[in-house]
């Protein structure tokens, strides 16, 4: 099957500063599991932003789901974004909605009928261990709880691609394992998963995962080939 994502010589510059990402070339196979690693400030979040179309590159080619994502007309962006589940580093929950409604949001946006929403939302809340907090607003949840709601929201619509930025940064090791298991389950259903992480433990948990390591804005293998098995990050 064709690659779900292809980057060719992509560069990203914020404003008039130096390039944050340079000469990034790689492709992602559908249904595979990827880790993006690298030191703080190396450009992991920036790479993910390009992947989920929050940022346009300054140069290069990005193909997503077989189409040119750089030249994509603005009105087609929402349709593309709906195919991608995103776990943001800062969660970005909707503050005036309950945990339940935050998780339900992708289904509501997709036009799923009310009576078909309750069961999957409860199931997902139970998965992340927060069914009893269904009615709580994000501000009343801990950082780790908000992160779990953000993950539930990202996966509930079974996106074609899941992009997660440090998704276990605020939870204990037991919950991190549980969340990782959730990603693996989704991956087994066919979702391509891309996780940026510093977490060594997490890297070792998925033997089939492939790894992209960014070093100062460049993929450390200039051919863009992906490594397996993962090697430790400094
Ligand atoms: N919106 C922005 N405007 C200007 N510079 C930015 C912006 N976002 C990121 N940068 C810069 O780009 C570089 C890479 O940042 P990025 O957040 O992608 O790194 P990271 O690898 O995800 O880091 P961390 O692991 O600390 O989250 C940093 O030098 C950062 O200061």
Quick structural gist:
The protein is an alpha/beta fold and 234 residues long. The protein has helices at 44-51, 77-81, 99-109, 118-127, 143-155, 173-188, 200-205, and strands at 5-13, 19-28, 33-37, 59-64, 67-68, 84-87, 161-165, 192-196, 210-215, 218-219. The protein is built from 7 helices and 10 strands.
Task: Describe the overall structure.
Residues 5-233 form the ABC transporter domain. Keywords: ATP-binding, Cell cycle, Cell division, Cell membrane, Membrane, Nucleotide-binding, Transport. There is one protein chain. The protein has helices at residues 44-51, 77-81, 99-109, 118-127, 143-155, 173-188, 200-205; strands at 5-13, 19-28, 33-37, 59-64, 67-68, 84-87, 161-165, 192-196, 210-215, 218-219. The protein has 234 residues and is α/β, with parallel strands linked by helices. The longest helix is centred in the last third of the chain and has 16 residues, at 173-188. The two termini are 34 Å apart. Adenosine-5'-triphosphate is lined by residues 14, 20, 38, 40-46.
